[in-house]
Amino acid sequence: MSGSEPRRVEREVVCPFCALLCDDLEVAVDGNRLAVLAKGCSRAAEAFARPLPDDLRPRVRGEPVALDTALARAAELLATARLPLLAGLEADLSGLRAAVALAERTGGVLDPMAEEGARAQLLTVERAGWVTGTLAEARNRPDLVLLLGDGWRTTAPRLVERVLLPAVRLDDRPRRIVQLGGAPPEEAAIEHFPCPDESLPDRVALLRALLRARSIAAPEPLRELTQAIRAAAYRLLVWSIGSLAQPALLALHAAALTRELNAEGRAIGLPLAAAPGAVTARQLFLWQAGVPDPVSYADGAPEHDPGRWCGERLLGEEATDLLVWIDAFGTRPSPITTVPTVLLSRPGSPSSGTPEVAFPIATPGLDHPGDLYRTDPVVALRSRGLRRTAALPTVAAVLAAIGERLPPPRI
Q: How many domains does the chain have?
């Protein structure tokens, strides 16, 4: 579907398809077709190149309809729902603001329903705290990097290139990179300490004990790693919680290890988020509602209760009677459920069933500009639109239009 405009090359493009938000891509734009020319990973290449379907009309129960018809049906479902669940939440900041406004208007629940283990990790932060750093710190400061497992490879494919092996650093201290567990790394610069996935939390606990000079039995490689950690001036721990066995236990030990290492020297953690939407949503909730996800507006005021308002539980027990699933990047199919679903997703994305209403949605960074937070949630990047897709509305526009069709709130 090439347009009449000549082919052009855009540089320093932000990739919105993982939470690393690499901002150095070179992308060719030929009408509605996009192609990554340089700097992107295989995930970025596939996601940018995904073609737009010819039919971009909304659908009601699988049948194409006019936009006004789909908006009216979605508004009807929200108006009659006792407890709507707005989930997925893979959108830019403006789309997420609209989601919060709609949840507040309808007494709904907001939950990204992110990767497995994300909630356990949040509970670790709430109960015990941790010490984390930015990508800039991770790039410039550590002389020892400890990778927990190999989930970083799929969560942030360009982590080594962009962060762990920078061309220029702030000092000339040699950097040692060690991976504990997971598959053997391909990069020669990364040492591998084998460890079964299910034993990784125990190995981290053992490291903590050895660093406290406990006289306990331990494999010699782990003792050598303990000495290296103790001797380093600046340590970095990296993990992707969704890829790890026993995520709650691993998060507990990883957070404790970063805290304990800061008693002497410096140490930071770099927990890698799977997608930018969940990171952006949490930042929005924290400054707007004052609480992290999940957030409920069922009683009018924002309430955070991870057990009561867990999206997976609400769907599993059918405690919610409407699911609004938002995925503007086309990376997370909606969950399989018997609950009626309003779907806002990138055109051509896989679906787990036939939603009651489906809206093809513009993708931030490809079809329109958008603001997203990186995996280190202190930096927001602006991604610019690359092509003209007037037929595709944004998440913010669709949710606002649905809200306009709701009956006036009761006073």
A: 2
What is the structure's pLDDT at 144?
A: 95
For a pLDDT cut of 70, what percent of the chain falls above it? 97
19 occurs within a structural domain: no
Residue 18: closest CA among 42, 2, 1, 34: 42
* Residue 263 CB partners (closer than 8 Å, separation 6+): none
Q: Is 5 within the bounds of a domain?
A: no
Burial environment of residue 264 by CB neighbours within 10 A (0 to 12, 13 to 18, 19 or more) = exposed
Q: In this structure, are residues 174 and 143 in contact, taking their beta carbons and an 8 Å threshold?
A: yes
Say if residue 176 is in the same domain as residue 257. yes
Q: Are residues 87 and 311 in contact, defined by beta-carbon separation less than 8 angstroms?
A: yes
CATH number at residue 335: 3.40.50
CB 275 within 8 A of CB 281: no
Residues 128 and 250 in one domain: yes
In a domain, 374, yes or no: no
pLDDT tens digits, residue range 341-377? Answer: 999 999 988 887 889 999 999 999 999 999 999 999 9
Render pLDDT for 49-106 as a digit per residue (tens, 0 to 9): 999 999 999 999 999 999 999 999 999 999 999 999 999 999 999 999 999 999 999 9
Mean pLDDT in residue range 127-137:
91
Is there a single domain that holds both residue 100 and residue 123?
no
Rounded to 5 degrees, what are φ and ψ at 357? Answer: -135, 140
Question: Do 230 and 317 share a domain, yes or no?
Answer: no
* Domain end position, chosen among 227, 261, 295: 261
Question: pTM of the prediction?
Answer: 0.93
The torsion region of residue 265 among left (phi > 0), alpha (psi -120 to 50) and beta comes to left
Whole-angstrom distance, CA of residue 251 vs CA of residue 122: 9
In whole angstroms, what is the distance from residue 104 CA to residue 11 CA? Answer: 39
> What domain range is 310 assigned to?
58-114+276-362+389-404
194 and 301 together in one domain: no
193 lies in some domain: yes
Q: What's the one-letter identity of residue 287?
A: W
pLDDT tens, residue by residue, 280-294: 999 999 999 999 999
- Cα–Cα distance list, 312 to 97, 111, 167 (Å): 22, 9, 43
d(CA 368, CA 12): 16
